[in-house]
Amino acid sequence: MTADSGKFLYEEIQELILEMVKTGKLQAGGKIPSLRETAQKLKTSVTTVMKAYMELERKGFIESRPKSGYFLVNTQMRRLPQPEATSPSPIPNPVSKFDLVMQLYYTMGKTSKISFAVAEPSSKLLPTDELAKMMKKAMAQTPNHSSYETIGGLPELKNQIAYHMLSNGITMPTDKMIITSGGSEAIYLALKILTKPGDSVIVESPCYFGYTNILHALGIYALELPTHPVTGIDKEALRRALMRDDVKAAIIQPNYNNPLGCLIPERDRQEITEMFRSSGAVIIEDDIYGDLPHEGERPSTLYQYDRESVIYVSSFSKTIAPGYRVAWMCSEKYLTPMFKYKASTTVDTVRPTQLALAEYLASGKYTRHLKKFRGTCASLVASFTNAISKYFPEGTRITRPKGGFILWLELPETADTLAIYQRASHEGIGFAPGTVFSSQDKYNNCMRINCAVVWNDETEMYLKRLGELCHKALKE
Asked: HTH gntR-type domain location, by residue (predicted)?
């Protein structure tokens, strides 16, 4: 922070670039000074300048072009509005789209050219080779690496997870933790002990379709509640539902929810947990994107506010290793019954992947990776947002997440994104159509876009083509 202005230096650099735009020194489409050039001129570090440029990119003022540098975006480009808060029916619904979701599962990851469909980072953005070396090293040092792991999970990994969370101000006792085969298994275990067929479970609307798959498998009804793309689940609707309905549990993503990317304000978190404590219902907190803020500190968890009414779930699937299928859950009250169900199904979680992740976390490389990957996510979301603003139809709305790597688009009401999806998939382009994110007949004009792919001219070309298909569908 500079003494004269009271602002951080990277903020002053942002203002300097914007002032050059106002005075005409920088023109739309023109290249701006390189990181090194600006750092030398202002006698500061390249890291500080990079932080300023990344923030300008996130805000849509500049864009990075591979091997070319940073360029000023057309300042006349339309800024797409955000979607408004959703308004689902307040009646619990049986989940009936399982077959459709399964069809999409088979095709979403199999597009021949590019997929914006599956919410996972490209392996090119992750330290895949380094993790493989870690696994080889860990297995060489563990003669019994091919043996069964203890049901609760590798103690060394649990210790490293606890240390990582504690470094972010979140206490997570290892004796209350279970390692699971992905976050979906953790949520399944939690629902299995909390509910029975015919019960109702609160979910945000729209919600991740993996949740509704689990609800379908367990015969549970989905009670969808209004959700705002910025602040998350509607508190008052939540209060009414807990008073009106015999709700057993809720699945809530407080940090950068999938698919809206919303972030529940800190001021609301304790109040939400108090509602559940009073009602006797339980929150299953899915914090899978919590490690991915675009800037600033990692947000808190609901689990911090109430260890009795919250079952905490998180995973490494979105940050480092989607295919390793390593997640964890914590609970003060329900550990024993969840442990029993784990023992009666998958028994344990794959040992070699746990060994590799424990080694990676212990090396300190995970923290360094996160610092870089957060910036990458912010930059990619900004690049996708700018391109969608250029190429998608008039009337399109788009979310502005402050973390994670997912965008939710709302096209004009007449659009049918399932039909657009089918056409796009024939051209080797994938995305997730909005209808699968609800148990109700909603979001037919919406789509979810995964931005965690390498950004280059080819990526922009396919995004442009997707925009053209949307234009074409609206004209028919």
From this structure: 7-75
